[in-house]
User: Which sequence fits this backbone?
């Protein structure tokens, strides 16, 4: 026989199973006591019969039920014998106690349900959705891009799993994205590196995963290290949650190279790791060399406008140099083959092979169609093959950020030896001084200097003679500041001071390049006469979003963001022609650029370079027969080996 202690122990174990066991226990106790009270009432009637009481057994059962569920029904026994009223009182008291416990339990359970609902703790039952793990300042821009990508779908979903409070996520998304169109946005709170949490959001049904860093690039090294560790753990959890290995494309932000190498040990082509700020540094370099490039990338990387697609057809041995004129919509940039990989600008004489795919810039994948016959035959224009002279450049860097190290590391591959980098910062830290000294030792052929300057004082800024430099690059002014809006506000003040100084120097030709973290500040920044600005978060989110939709596009990014491969430039028209203006068709310009082994993607009108309503003069992927007038200050947007 079981002892009392063992019975109590088993009963406690049963209750610890959760709310259902408690509810069942209370209900069983209620039924037991109900049967017991019916027995007492029936026994009392048999032991002390009273001829004045005429109720049947069924009436007695019903009476006990009413009295236990509602003590107000006790008055129905007002005329019953006194001994029967004892059972009435017991029934009412027991009913009050048990029902109060049941009501309290149900209330608590409902509160927990609503609490979990508010906190986003429910199970997510979606399919073919994009799963975002983590939360940072890039989330809103990523969602915006995915909404655009999903416009052609009737029902689409984006699920966000992060440690952020659900109310905070929902409020920010509702404020920044009032219309999600055909995309449902589901937020839920939880540990995204936990297998059970991943299963709760139906990870196996996701079409792709975007794994965000849980801190900004301006965070301390310890925070970035912790973020990377969490990301590695999350990737392992994603793989472990799938029984047959990872089949889901995962795009992850990883700060440290050693952690990216660690993830590489998985040897999984579905896992893509990015150092966002390394990309930003390279974009800064390319933008400093050629004006208007940010608008070009903004168009190419976004789902709104021209996009990159992979397309395969029966090429019929057509030459790559003539391939563009077999598409009504689209400009081929290169060839991808599973065996040979990606090759941008393979050469005009390259003969398309059976298994080749082209990477093509087009309006939409539905409009890409290879025609067996040419749809446009370009005319020959007078070709002038001029080159730009490479000179030493002077660059002023106002502020500091880890992206500045990447900027300098990449710039030395493009610039002529003897070029100088003057870094101005107010009260630089010992760590920053050490980093600059390390750069000086690494690149002795370049002049790298760190100088103290308060950029928020017009007098100090003017003393540095900023417009004697070829380029001014504006970065964060506070190494400990992590709020994007605060960093952008500091940038705005410096831009206004520079504009004031420039107003006294009408012949100044210095190019000003700045970083904008919050995309909502774009319209404000454009009012400061800045030559070029890179919306960091927006461009990075575009890349993350595109990779989540088409992982193969990484091969394209790796090439154009590398100094050794082909890159996009905005080149002045006088490099191609001496007879200006030109009244031609866009297809003719494509053939003209092809004579320099370049691919023309579009044009930039010089007189519209400061008009935000006209995309700062940049137009890509024009129709081959579109008439254009090219004047002296206009540019061609080209895919080329170098800027010269």
Assistant:
């Amino acid at each position: 026989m079981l002892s009392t202690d063992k019975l109590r122990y088993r009963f406690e174990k049963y209750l610890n199973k959760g709310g259902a066991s408690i509810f069942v226990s209370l209900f069983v106790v209620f039924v037991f006591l109900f049967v017991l009270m019916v027995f007492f009432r029936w026994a009392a009637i048999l032991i002390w019969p009273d001829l004045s009481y005429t109720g049947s057994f069924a009436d007695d059962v019903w009476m006990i039920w009413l009295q236990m569920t509602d003590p107000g029904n006790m008055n129905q026994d007002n005329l019953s014998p006194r001994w029967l009223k004892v059972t009435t009182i017991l029934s009412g008291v027991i009913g009050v106690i048990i029902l109060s416990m049941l009501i309290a339990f149900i209330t608590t359970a409902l509160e927990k349900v609503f609490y979990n609902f508010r906190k986003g703790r429910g199970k997510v039952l979606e399919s073919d959705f994009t799963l975002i793990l983590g939360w940072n300042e890039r989330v809103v821009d990523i969602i915006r891009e995915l909404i655009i990508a999903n416009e052609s779908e009737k029902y689409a979903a984006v699920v966000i799993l992060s440690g952020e409070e659900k109310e905070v996520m929902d409020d920010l998304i509702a404020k920044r994205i009032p219309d999600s169109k055909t995309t449902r946005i589901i937020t839920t709170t939880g540990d995204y590196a936990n297998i059970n949490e991943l299963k709760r959001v139906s990870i196996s049904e996701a079409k792709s995963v975007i794994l965000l860093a849980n801190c900004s690039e301006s965070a301390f090294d310890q925070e970035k290290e912790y973020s990377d560790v969490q990301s590695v753990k999350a990737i392992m959890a994603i793989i472990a949650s799938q029984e047959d290995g990872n089949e889901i494309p995962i795009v992850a932000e990883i700060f440290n190279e050693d952690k990216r190498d660690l993830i590489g040990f998985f040897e999984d082509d579905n896992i893509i790791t990015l150092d966002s700020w390394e990309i930003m540094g390279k974009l800064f370099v390319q933008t400093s060399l050629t004006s208007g490039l940010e608008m070009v990338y903004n168009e190419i990387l976004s789902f709104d406008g021209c996009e990159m697609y992979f397309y395969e057809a029966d090429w019929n041995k057509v030459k790559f140099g003539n391939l563009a004129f077999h598409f009504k919509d689209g400009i081929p940039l290169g060839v991808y083959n599973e065996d040979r990989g990606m090759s941008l600008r393979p050469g005009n004489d390259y003969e398309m092979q059976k298994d080749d795919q082209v990477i093509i810039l087009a309006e939409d994948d539905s409009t890409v169609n290879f025609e067996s016959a040419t749809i446009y035959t370009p005319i020959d224009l007078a070709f002038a093959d001029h080159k730009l002279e490479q000179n030493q450049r002077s660059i002023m860097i106002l502020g500091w950020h880890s992206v500045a190290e990447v900027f300098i590391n990449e710039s030395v591959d493009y610039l002529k030896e003897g070029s100088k980098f003057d870094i101005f910062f107010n009260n630089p830290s010992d760590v920053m001084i050490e980093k600059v000294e390390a750069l000086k030792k690494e690149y002795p052929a370049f002049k790298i200097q760190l100088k103290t300057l308060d950029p928020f004082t017009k007098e100090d800024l003017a003393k540095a003679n900023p417009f004697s430099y070829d380029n001014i690059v504006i970065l964060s002014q506070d190494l400990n500041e992590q709020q994007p809006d605060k960093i952008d506000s500091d940038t705005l003040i410096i831009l206004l001071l520079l504009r004031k100084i420039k107003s006294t120097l009408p012949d100044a030709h210095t190019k000003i390049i700045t970083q904008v973290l919050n995309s909502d500040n774009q319209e404000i920044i454009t009012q400061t006469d800045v030559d070029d600005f890179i919306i960091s978060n927006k461009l990075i989110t575009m890349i993350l979003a595109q990779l989540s939709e088409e992982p193969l596009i990484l091969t394209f990014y790796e090439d154009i963001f590398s100094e050794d491969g082909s890159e996009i430039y905005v080149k002045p028209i006088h490099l191609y022609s001496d007879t200006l203006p030109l009244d031609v068709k866009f297809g003719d310009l494509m053939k003209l650029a092809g004579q320099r082994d370049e691919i023309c993607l579009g044009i930039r009108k010089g007189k519209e370079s400061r008009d935000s309503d006209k995309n700062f003069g940049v137009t890509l992927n024009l129709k081959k027969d579109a008439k254009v007038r090219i004047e002296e200050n206009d540019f061609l947007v080209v895919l080329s080996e170098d800027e010269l």
